[in-house]
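Q: What changes when zinc ion is included in the input?
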Amino acid sequence: MLNVKLGRGIVFLFLFASVPAFATSDSLMIAKIYEHSFYRGEAYENLRYLTKKIGHRIAGSERVAQAVDWSKGLMEQLAFDKVYLQDVRVPYWDRGSSEEAYILGDAQRLKVLALGGSVATPEEGITAEVIEVELLSDLRKYGENVQGKIVFVNKPWDESLVETGIAYGLNSAQRSRGPAEAAKLGAVAYLFRSLGSGIDDYPHTGATRYVKGIDSIPAMAISAIGANRLHTALEKDPNLKVFLRQHSAWKGEVLSHNVIAEWKGTDHPGQIITIGGHLDSWDVGEGAHDNGTGTMGTLDALRTLMALGYKPKHTIRLVFYMNEENGVHGASQYGLQSKQKGEQLIAAIESDAGGFAPRGFDIKGGPEAVAWIQRSWKPLFEESYWVSRFLPGSPGVDSGVWGKHYPGALMFNFRPDPHRYFDLHHTAKDVFEAVDKRELQSGVAALASLLYLIDTHYEVLPN
Ligand SMILES: [Zn+2]
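A: The predicted holo structure follows.
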């Protein structure tokens, strides 16, 4: 008997030593949030409207202007204290009519998309021989042979990496810097194996850049299947020629907006927690996972807390950033204006990694804050909700940009399951049908729960 009692006593003490006193009320609140999100969540239906009625929405376009107006209206239906637009000037790049690519003498077309920001080919197209490399650095050994050729960078995706974001990062500089590097050596066009996982016939677009003083040459992404086909054809005939044509162009600057809503805090109204994601998308597919789920998800997280009668202590500010995909001008403007007004932006949550089942959050904060969160908040999520990743990491792209003005802000980057994101990313496959309602609403609940925890316990968090 004595042993059993002693045993229970030890367990009892251990529990109380390891679980903070507020854990029970927090667990109850989180349970309510999840229940509400699963039964009465609205993110999925809002996403349906954004993707099906408005569709893809590149910064500067007519459609993104529609998305701005519509999402402002959506925010105005909720109990925010203030909803407004913040002016942002954005560059407008237009793809023009569809791209063409084929190997001369081969009737089957290669699937390509102009890279974002690319110039057009001449109207008659470009016909040239091809130099294939895996890495831009391999180009040097071809020296003058690059003159007049199409440079084809064909580096396959590293399928071994569970963290698909790392696989993306490994090769993204070849997309952005490639055209300038190839042009330096006299290339006439740049053909880039799509930055995406899986082997299919969908090219992935994405931003590329030119360098002042170096010729701007047309740049295209080719599907993985197309890249493999071209590779095999080049093995048989290294002197084959490829035809490329595209019509994209910069259309100058356009006035656009960040869409912002504020929910005033009761105790610390001057301290602001920013939550949101980017509203623009690439101009293919429907911008569903990138980033309809991030905007509709963060909005629904706030609506959920409102529906449960929650009153925030700090001001919660929802921001739909403009132009993340090709300039990040919205987040720059947000940071600049906040700084000029002397606002206190204390914390942030960003959602821009898709609407798949939530796995956790990357945290940008001091080591003590991260350790505290791992000890106190992670247990509230991991067993019941399968959300267990709370690791130091980078904030999202938008928070990272405005965060330069706020180096002390505690930032969270929402991390859903990473396996399928880069199959769809920047392709025609990123459509509403690729989003699962239950996974999306589960993410909404994770976002709302984390926002609730930050707001409720910010004062006791170590710096
Ligand atoms: Zn995105």
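Observations recorded in class: The mean pLDDT is 94.
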